[in-house]
């Protein structure tokens, strides 16, 4: 080494370090909002809302997918603050148990605290519609698909399972524009209680309503409950609007109606296109322009451009983030469901005990995805091609109709969407979006 | 065979009035050179010239020209009348030649084969004073003398050598060369014809030689202004005008195309700069001359093109070869910068005149601005020659009085800047938690148990010992210490930085070093963040770095040799090598006790010097690694309690140097390079400091270069280390980033000072080039550094917030609890107390019964039992629990405070926001037993629903099964007989519960917390927790204190004590004790 090496060596060290530090700039990693894939947990909690009194309003199904029994501390909260009921359950391995709230009140929430992991829960309506219970509260929530027309009763159920009082504000997007009812601003939800908002009181006679809830303090479990006649469905919404939605199981069969409702929470007009794949049929892309703070609808069935066939695989692409919902129905009424968002994992649980008509696994990315399907000790690996939808039965034939099972579908990337339909006639009326990792 | 000397024709150009013509002719007539003819060319009003010539030199020819077209034209015209001459001797009419001058010139011409020969020129009235021994020139045609103004001729210049310009007066030119070059250019009537001719002669390959044996006295009446320039076309032109336009003409036609473009472009830049400065100095003549020169050259474009066309006909030398013959750089810019630095801007721009006009110049140009820009080289030795001892602006910041004045100004500015820190309420930010009393601080040092986390029995942190000793000096007024750190640390750092470069640079440069350290962003930022631990390092590092450089024998640093061997404990031992090294060890230990990352900084200095020495060896003999080992070993002994703590810490041992900050919240590399961390220095001006340092580094030469290279290596290493640790690329080794930044900033300040020193000394020996530009930029950068500093003075507190987030939380105490803990979560750099790392960007610490205080200033690296808290938080962050409250309840944690910033960030305040991991916020919102009590933009408070007191009693009626034992923190209370008492205090074995004076049976709960079962006595019993721990920590602390005291005695105090008791040992010097 000679003197002339000093400056180059030192300069090179500084430049190399600086370049590396500049190029690799770590960010504060966003947490997963759901711990369904976490193993080795000490305790978990699941929060179920949307439970009410009266006919058609259902119960909570707890499913223990673990190989060991779990102790579940169930607390039932209601719209009467301070009114609780606590029950401790011992849930055997791979067992399911129903919990019907027995505490006084008109709407209820159930918190299940488990001494470990592997227990999932769903709110289930008598006719089979279900909504997975959340494992954490949300601070923002967007949804659409609820209706306040005559004959339909849309209720937004805000459940605060935590001791902290929560404060939230609700705004709505309708066909007539933006609404921010004064009564829905600064809503206070006391800790461990439920607040139910009958939407029709403030958002009158709207066939489709887009909702945006911002939690200013605390966190809430939010479910929209739509009741049309005897049909009850749950709109679980999403924590944020998206520009792409995957709806792999949209029914097009005869005597069934299906439509995709989109709500635009932004100030600009959004162009929404729906690419429909239906067996060997070639279906033109359906589209609609949704004005600022407005809602739009794309009818899939009946639609003269779309033949009546089985399930259509619909991909919605919007020029700006929108909320989306799938509305299905027949002559007796309609049901609303929220499409899943790309995630790493989905937990499918047969909360009704009736199994599923179809379960579709979608790879929303352009590249193939290594998907793992596990149920109990059984585990199957499969590759799903990019932008493809595959029936779970093809991936794991041994799982049959999943009756009584809990299945975890996971992938290494946030590119997985799973959707399921219950066996109904006509087919595809009840669409279930399983619990996902957010 | 007859041998004749070559014929020489002396062409004397006589311009009326020519009062010295007779003398000139007489000296020519008196030459001992036989073949000399004299031709007098008289022009202008020359009627009386012929009789005057005839009277003195009857053999001389006289040629009278009708009009005065200048010296050049007259010479050309005269030569036309000459036939057969070998040499022409062109003479002014105000010269006096020594009798052998012509012979010496001719002999030199033959000896050297020169085309042009110039004599040694002395003053006309004072022949011992040298005027010229040839001249040099730069590429712009600015000539430079080879003698100093007023230089006495003592034979020191009597060496025949090549020069670039033969100055006019008396010039011997070979006739064939003169013809080849077509004589002088008549476009240059006066003042510049010599430069032009010599330039072309050089291009033609002719040598130009000075023959000092030939001596000529020259009146220089034209240059001195004794008579006006009267040639045709020059009537309205001043001498300055003529000089500039002729210089420009030479530069425009003396180069090839590329060099011409480069030369003229840079010339234009210089002229514009000079124009601006001259305009500022209201120097209208100069402005006119600059503008006029360009106008003249444009007006004479045809002649310029002609000259360029003619150029290839005689050119032999390439431009590259020609440049080798010239001096590098630009003479006038060099002079301007030197004047600027030495005498200030006013003199450089011409407002203040030089005290003595340079004799050689003799023109008006030599004054003020001209002194900086005119071609007469009178400046470089200006200070040494005739300004020595001068006062006022000529000694800009070189005199003691000026330096003291600046120091006073800086002190006053600093006092203004910290005026609100002296008496204001100190917020609970950084490490400004109120200190405990002097006595309690001592107790923390000796304590067998400390409340950090859930409690620990590890040895007391030596920082408490240092604080207690410091408290002794302020008579126990502990509240003074943090204020003192806030107010005095940065000035102390400035003083230390000045001392760091002592002996290496001038006092003025030392002043610059202190100034740069004072305005350095890291120190000001740390004041604003209340980080007195880092401020301690900021203040101590300059002294430590100096000591390390001395210990490592970095050349030039140590100004005095080590003292002779003296026995330990006797006066003089301090001056020995061992004594000096001990001082380094003690300083490191003291500062390291308060800010352990300082030890890492010291290691960086050692390593930096070692690396620099490996890559570029110097004369230093000390072995860096051996010295480093010795220092570290000694420091470990001096900080024995901390060493023990660190050894016990296991995998957390490296955490002693600092907790891991969130990679998303650390400064970017650009911020690190600017030595800033979220406060001052984040604007563009933040680059001034590294820019000044870099410029300082590149301009430094000579011996200072060695020191600069060592410091630069240390700085680079510090920057690299800071970058690596900020990104956690060194694993769990995450020394306090700000301390490492402080080292880096210190190096920058020292390099800037070295640059100033280089400007004073080193640059004088090199030609003009990038170094001069760098030096100019360095001066600008240092001056500009003052601007943001002045801007920061207004607040009077350097952005230290009036209140912290923590102290605004006044509802931390749970109702009905005897004792409780608060869990503080946040980035370690903003927590108001020391804690442990949960994961990068998330540290956890606890305070007991409310806000942090003096007991939580230092935390041992070993988290020990407190891991239960860290693990519980980690479980929550990773979504593995929703019962964090229950997990923390045993530790008596009633409240969790999550901080994203130390201060609320009210309008007008600069709040440094460093968010906690987003996963933590989400995780806390999932906990079923935590209630969010308060949420602000930068903080959140969660209440533990399962809290049951720091000391609790089993109570089946309570939801959690326990109720708080009210009374006091340490379990004083009354409980029913047969109760079970749980204490959230660790280690369990350190405490006993006395129930009515008897010890209760102890077991543990959750694996760590003591649970006491009280016997059934049938009636309520009074309980009290008692600490029963062998005072091992006290013994350790006592040993450490004794060690410090012994070493302190070593600095001569042992001897003094002996004198006091009358037992002085004779012959204590050399031969006993520690040797070098």
Q: What does this protein structure show overall?
A:
The complex is a heterodimer of chains A (438) and B (1076). Chain A is mostly beta strands and 438 residues long. Helices cover 5% and strands 50% of the residues of chain A. Chain A is built from two helices and 34 strands. In chain A, the strands form seven sheets. In chain A, strands 18, 19, 20, 21, 22, 23, 24 and 25 form an eight-stranded antiparallel β-sheet that branches. In chain A, strands 9, 11, 12, 13 and 15 form a five-stranded antiparallel β-sheet that branches. The longest helix of chain A is centred in the N-terminal third of the chain and has 18 residues, at 6-23. Chain A is globular. With 1076 residues, chain B is an alpha+beta fold. In chain B, 43% of the residues lie in helices and 13% in strands. Chain B has 36 helices and 27 strands. In chain B, strand 8 and strand 9 (143-145) form a beta hairpin. In chain B, helix 19 (462-473) packs across helix 24 (577-594), helix 20 runs parallel beside helix 23 (532-551) and helix 25 packs antiparallel against helix 26 (624-638).
The strand count of chain A comes to 34
For the termini of chain A, the CA-CA separation is 57 Å
Low-confidence stretches of chain B: 351-395, 1066-1076
Roughly how many Å apart are the termini of chain B?
83 Å
Counting DSSP H or I runs of 4 or more residues, the number of helices of chain A is 2
Q: Please, how many helices of chain B?
A: 36
In helices, the fraction of residues of chain A equals under 10%
Biggest sheet details of chain B: 10 strands, mixed
Strand content of chain A: over 45%
Radius of gyration of chain B, in angstroms, nearest whole number: 41 Å
Name the overall outline of chain A: globular
């Amino acid at each position: 080494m000679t003197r002339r090496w000093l400056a180059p060596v030192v300069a090179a060290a500084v430049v190399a370090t600086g370049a590396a530090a500049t190029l690799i700039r770590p960010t504060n990693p966003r947490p997963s909002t759901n711990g369904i894939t976490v193993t080795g947990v000490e305790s978990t909690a699941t929060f179920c809302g949307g439970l009410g009194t009266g006919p058609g309003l259902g119960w909570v199904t707890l499913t223990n997918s673990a190989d060991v029994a779990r102790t579940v501390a169930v607390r039932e909260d209601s719209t009467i603050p301070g009114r609780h009921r606590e029950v401790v359950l011992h849930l055997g391995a791979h067992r399911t148990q129903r919990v019907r709230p027995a505490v006084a009140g008109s709407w209820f929430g159930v918190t299940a605290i488990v001494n470990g992991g592997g227990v999932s829960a769903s709110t289930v309506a008598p006719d089979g519609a279900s909504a997975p219970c959340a494992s954490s509260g949300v601070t923002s929530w967007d949804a659409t698909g609820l209706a306040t027309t005559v004959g339909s009763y849309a209720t937004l159920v805000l459940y605060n399972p935590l001791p902290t009082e929560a404060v939230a504000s609700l705004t709505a997007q309708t066909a007539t524009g933006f609404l921010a009812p004064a009564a829905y601003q600064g809503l206070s939800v006391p800790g461990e209680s439920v607040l139910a908002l009958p939407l029709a009181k403030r958002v009158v006679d709207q066939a489709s309503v887009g909702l945006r809830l911002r939690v200013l303090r605390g966190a809430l479990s939010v479910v929209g409950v739509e009741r049309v006649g005897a049909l009850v469905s749950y709109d679980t919404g999403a924590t944020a609007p998206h520009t792409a939605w995957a709806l792999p199981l949209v029914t097009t069969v005869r005597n069934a109606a299906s439509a995709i409702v989109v709500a635009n929470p932004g100030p600009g007009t959004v162009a929404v296109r729906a690419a429909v794949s239906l067996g060997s049929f070639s279906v033109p892309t359906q589209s609609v322009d949704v004005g600022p703070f407005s809602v739009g609808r794309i009818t899939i069935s009946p639609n003269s451009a779309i033949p009546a066939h089985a399930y259509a695989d619909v991909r919605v692409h919007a020029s700006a983030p929108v909320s989306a919902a799938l509305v299905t129905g027949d002559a007796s009424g309609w049901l609303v469901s929220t499409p899943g968002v790309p995630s790493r994992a989905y937990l499918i649980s047969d909360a009704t005990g009736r199994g599923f008509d179809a379960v579709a696994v979608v790879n929303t990315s352009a590249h193939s995805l290594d998907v793992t399907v596990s149920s109990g000790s059984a585990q199957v690996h499969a590759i799903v091609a990019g932008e493809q939808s595959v029936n779970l039965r093809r991936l794991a034939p041994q799982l049959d109709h999943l009756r009584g099972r809990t299945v975890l579908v996971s992938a290494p990337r946030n590119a997985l969407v799973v959707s399921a339909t219950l066996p109904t006639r006509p087919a595809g009326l009840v669409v279930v979006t399983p619990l996902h990792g957010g | 065979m007859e041998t004749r000397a070559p014929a020489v024709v002396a062409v004397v150009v006589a311009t009326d009035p020519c009062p010295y013509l007779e003398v000139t002719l007489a000296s020519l007539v008196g030459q001992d050179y036989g073949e000399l003819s004299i031709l007098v060319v008289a022009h202008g009003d020359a009627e009386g010239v012929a009789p005057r010539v005839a009277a003195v030199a009857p053999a001389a020819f006289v040629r009278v020209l009708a009009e005065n077209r200048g010296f050049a034209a007259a010479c050309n015209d005269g030569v036309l009348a000459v036939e057969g001459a070998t040499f022409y001797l062109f003479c002014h009419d105000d010269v006096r030649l020594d009798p052998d001058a012509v012979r010496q010139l001719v002999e030199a011409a033959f000896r050297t084969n020169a085309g042009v020969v110039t004599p040694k020129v002395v003053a006309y009235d004072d022949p011992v004073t040298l005027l010229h021994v040839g001249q040099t020139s730069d590429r712009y045609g600015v000539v430079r003398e080879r003698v100093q103004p007023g230089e006495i001729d003592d034979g020191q210049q009597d060496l025949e050598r090549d020069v670039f310009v033969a100055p006019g007066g008396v010039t011997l030119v070979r006739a064939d060369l003169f013809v080849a070059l077509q004589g002088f250019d008549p476009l240059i009537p006066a003042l510049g014809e010599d430069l032009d001719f010599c330039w072309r002669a050089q291009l033609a390959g002719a040598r130009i030689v000075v023959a000092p044996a030939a001596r000529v006295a020259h009146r220089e009446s034209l240059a001195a202004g004794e008579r006006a320039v009267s040639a045709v076309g020059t009537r309205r032109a001043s001498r300055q005008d003529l000089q500039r336009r002729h210089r420009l003409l030479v530069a425009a036609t003396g180069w090839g195309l590329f060099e011409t473009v480069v030369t003229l472009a840079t010339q234009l830049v210089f002229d514009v700069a000079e124009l601006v400065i001259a305009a500022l100095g209201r120097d209208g003549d100069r402005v006119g001359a600059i503008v006029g020169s360009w106008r003249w050259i444009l007006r004479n474009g045809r002649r310029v093109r002609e000259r360029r066309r003619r150029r290839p006909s005689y050119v032999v030398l390439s431009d590259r070869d020609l440049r080798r013959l010239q001096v590098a750089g630009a003479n006038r810019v060099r002079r301007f910068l030197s004047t600027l630095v030495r005498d200030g801007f006013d003199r450089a721009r011409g407002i203040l005149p030089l005290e003595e006009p340079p004799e050689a110049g003799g023109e008006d140009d030599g004054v003020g601005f001209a002194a900086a820009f005119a071609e007469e080289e009178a400046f470089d030795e200006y200070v040494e020659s005739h300004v020595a001892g001068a006062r006022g602006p000529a000694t800009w910041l070189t005199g003691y009085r000026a330096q003291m004045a600046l120091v006073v100004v800086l002190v006053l500015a600093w006092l203004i800047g910290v005026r609100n820190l002296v008496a204001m309420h100190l917020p609970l930010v950084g490490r400004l938690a109120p200190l405990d009393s002097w006595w309690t601080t001592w107790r923390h040092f000796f304590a067998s148990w400390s409340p950090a986390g859930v409690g620990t029995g590890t040895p007391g942190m030596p920082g408490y010992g240092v604080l207690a000793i410091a408290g002794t000096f302020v008579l126990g007024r502990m509240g003074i210490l943090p204020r003192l750190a806030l107010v005095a640390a940065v000035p102390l750092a400035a003083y230390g930085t000045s001392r760091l470069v002592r002996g290496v640079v001038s006092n003025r440069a030392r002043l610059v070093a202190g100034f740069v350290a004072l305005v350095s962003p890291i120190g000001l930022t740390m004041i604003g963040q209340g980080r007195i631990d880092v401020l301690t390092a900021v203040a101590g590092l300059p002294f430590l770095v100096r000591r390390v450089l001395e210990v490592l024998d970095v050349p030039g640093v140590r100004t005095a040799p080590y003292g002779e061997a003296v026995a330990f404990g006797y006066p003089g031992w301090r001056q020995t090598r061992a004594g000096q090294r001990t001082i380094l060890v003690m300083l490191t230990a003291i500062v390291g006790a308060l800010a352990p990352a300082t030890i890492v900084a010291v290691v960086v200095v050692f390593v930096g010097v070692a690396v620099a020495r490996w890559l570029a060896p110097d004369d230093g003999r000390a072995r860096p690694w051996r010295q480093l080992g010795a220092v570290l070993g000694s420091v470990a002994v001096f900080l024995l309690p901390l060493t023990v703590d660190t050894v016990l810490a296991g995998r957390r041992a490296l955490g002693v140097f600092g907790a891991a900050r969130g990679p998303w919240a650390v400064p970017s590399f650009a911020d690190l390079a600017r030595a800033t961390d979220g406060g001052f220095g984040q604007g563009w001006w933040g680059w001034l400091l590294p820019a000044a340092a870099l410029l300082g580094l590149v301009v430094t030469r000579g011996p200072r270069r060695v020191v600069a290279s060592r410091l630069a290596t240390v700085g680079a290493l510090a920057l690299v280390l800071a970058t690596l640790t900020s990104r956690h690329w060194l694993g769990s080794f995450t020394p306090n980033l700000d301390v490492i930044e402080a080292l880096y900033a210190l190096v920058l300040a020292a390099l800037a000072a070295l640059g100033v020193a280089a400007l004073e000394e080193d640059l004088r020996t090199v030609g003009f080039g990038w170094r001069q530009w760098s030096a100019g930029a360095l001066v600008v950068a240092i001056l500009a550094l003052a601007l943001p500093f002045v801007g920061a003075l207004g607040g009077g507190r350097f952005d230290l917030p009036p209140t912290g987030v923590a102290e605004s939380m006044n509802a931390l105490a749970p109702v009905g609890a005897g004792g409780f803990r608060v869990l503080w979560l946040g980035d370690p750099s903003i927590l108001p107390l020391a804690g442990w790392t949960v994961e990068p960007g998330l540290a956890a610490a606890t305070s007991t019964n409310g806000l942090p205080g003096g007991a939580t200033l230092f935390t041992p690296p070993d988290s020990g039992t407190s891991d239960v808290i860290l693990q519980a938080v980690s479980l929550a962050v990773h979504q593995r629990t929703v019962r964090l409250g229950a997990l923390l309840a045993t530790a008596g944690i009633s409240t969790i405070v999550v901080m994203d910033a130390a201060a609320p960030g009210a309008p007008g305040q600069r709040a440094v926001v460093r968010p906690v991991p987003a996963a933590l916020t989400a995780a806390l919102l999932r906990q079923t037993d935590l209630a969010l009590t308060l949420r602000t933009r930068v903080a959140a408070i969660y209440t533990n629903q399962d809290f049951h007191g720091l000391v609790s009693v089993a109570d089946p009626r309570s939801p959690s099964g326990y109720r708080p034992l009210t009374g006091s923190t340490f379990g004083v209370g009354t409980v029913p007989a047969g109760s079970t008492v749980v204490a959230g205090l660790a280690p369990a074995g350190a405490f006993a519960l006395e129930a009515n004076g008897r010890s209760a049976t102890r077991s543990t709960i959750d694996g760590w917390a003591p649970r006491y079962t009280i016997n059934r006595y049938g009636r309520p019993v009074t309980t009290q927790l008692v600490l029963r721990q062998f005072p091992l920590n006290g013994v350790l602390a006592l040993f450490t204190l004794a060690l410090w005291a012994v070493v302190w005695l070593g600095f001569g105090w042992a001897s003094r004590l002996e004198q006091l008791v009358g037992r002085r040992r004779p012959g204590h010097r050399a031969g006993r004790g520690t040797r070098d």
